Amino acid sequence: MIYKTYTTEAENAAQLKSGLDTFFATNEDIEIISTDQSYSAADKKILFTIIYKEPTAKNRIGGFSSR
User: Fold this and answer.
1) Rounded distance, CA 15 to CA 8, Å?
2) How many domains are contained in the chain?
3) Domain of 22?
4) How far is Cα of residue 51 from the mean position of the Cα atoms in its chain?
5) pLDDT on residue 59
6) Residue 33 lies in a domain
């Protein structure tokens, strides 16, 4: 399995929500493995990381149908 990561940085909750909304809008079918959120007091930034895997490709099978 290949896991991917997405990390977003924000100065406040509204920016964090916007970044996450954009990510999930373009990655609807992913499977979330893990998330982590931290705050850096020195930088005054919220860091949010998602570890995920992409959906498995489904095999398409053609066939005939009866009426």
Assistant:
1) 9
2) 1
3) 4-53
4) 7
5) 60
6) yes
Of the candidates 56, 57, 50, 58, the residue with the CA atom closest to the CA atom of residue 32: 50
Per residue of the chain (67 residues), give pLDDT as tens.
799 999 999 999 999 999 999 999 999 999 999 999 999 999 999 999 999 999 877 665 655 555 5
**DSSP codes, 52-67:** EEPPPPPPP-------
**Cβ neighbour number for residue 50 with a 10 Å cutoff:** 20
- Sorted by sequence, the CB contacts under 8 Å of residue 23 that are 6+ apart come out as 6, 8, 50
pTM over 0.85: no
Q: How far apart are CA 16 and CA 20, in angstroms?
A: 6
Question: Which two structure tokens, joined as six digits, stand for 12?
Answer: 């406040």
Answer yes or no: is 64 within a domain: no
52 CA to centre of own chain? 6
